[in-house]
Amino acid sequence: DIVMTQSPDSLAVSLGERATFNCKSSQSVLYSSNNKNYLAWYQKKPGQPPKLLIYWASTRESGVPERFSGSGSGTDFTLTISSLQAEDVAVYYCQQYFSNLYTFGQGTKLEIK
Amino acid sequence: QVQLVQSGAEVKKPGSSVKVSCKASGGTFSSYAISWVRQAPGQGLEWMGGIIPMFGIPNYAHKFQGRVTISADESTTTAYMELNSLRSEDTAVYYCARDSRYFDNWGQGTLVTVSS
Q1: Nearest-angstrom CA–CA distance, B105 and B2
Q2: What is the distance in angstroms between the Cα of A89 and the nearest Cα belonging to chain B?
Q3: Res B79 pLDDT > 90
Q4: Which of A9, A74, A109, B50 is the most buried (most CB within 10 A)?
């Protein structure tokens, strides 16, 4: 199975500042035939189902604020919140779908400093 | 827009089984896959497996192989996840999700509590 490792485990950022989440896969999730990275990011708040933020590593889901962006390729990926808002407090997960045995990272908890 | 509505909370004894349903509306049920993801208390998200109703062939995570059965009924546009030989570590919220490889629509979640 492809192992997804996120860092850090937790993150405290001031309102209006940038938050950066990292995700590393144990093997490349870049499919060479279409040059797409098979990686998604989710936001999870208590009592709510996960919310898709980013897919194909950098495509923002409809309705997701522009302050959320994804980057990276191969085995190393980043989710960035450009200017933290109070409602962004959550746990963030990456997920690979390169293999048909999907796997998630362990999550990064975001708090307000 | 696809809507997924799951069955209600369950309390089960260790060693028993649970079957959770996920009713889909909107979209064409048989053409998209449905996956099941769980989150135990204080833990992360864990993919259990999925199915494309049109093909009816499920795909399971290694961890759950032999203990989980995922199925779908096209006539009622409902997917099911049955987990057997329940133990306390299976206490979790179980979610169904539309599987476009990434998960773009989610059910509301079903809490399954395993307790003697």
Answers
A1: 7
A2: 16
A3: yes
A4: B50
